[in-house]
Structures are given as C-alpha cells and as structure tokens.
Amino acid sequence: MPIKYVGCYEIDYTAERLRGCGTWGAYVAIYTQSPNPMHRYNVSQKQRVHADHLFATEAEAEQQAADAAKALVEHRQQRYSTGL
Asked: Which of 4, 17, 66, 80 is deepest in the core (most CB within 10 A)?
C-alpha cells in the first residue's frame, strides 16, 4: 500500500482487484498525527473512490486513488484553513 504525506496528513492509497470481474477498484484512507507517536487519527476510513468506474489495470486504479486522495486533502485543508 503506497503511502504519501501531505502536510500533517498521511494518505494510504491502493488498488484492489474486484471480485468476480477481473477489474480493479481504487481505495483511499486518510490519517493525521496524534500526540501519541504510536497512534494516528483516522480522518477518513478506507473508502472506494471513483466507485462508478472499473479500472483495467492496477496502475490505473492506483493513480486514480492517488489523485482522489490529493483532492480530498486539499479540500480538507481549504475547509479548515478558512474556518468554513
């Protein structure tokens, strides 16, 4: 599972083969730091992104998961930096 760090967020994104159809799905989970170095807060539980799209390759699904994760984090940063 690839991990990317953006600011204080840890992004886990992955591609998983979907049962029964041979295609791939894109999944993302987002975490942030906690005061305890052995723990992290779950900001967004693992969820399938672009659920209406089936990906032919693992690489394609993983790239879409990474793009979706980046957009989710940017939206969250904007939301909490402006106080909205």
From this structure: 66
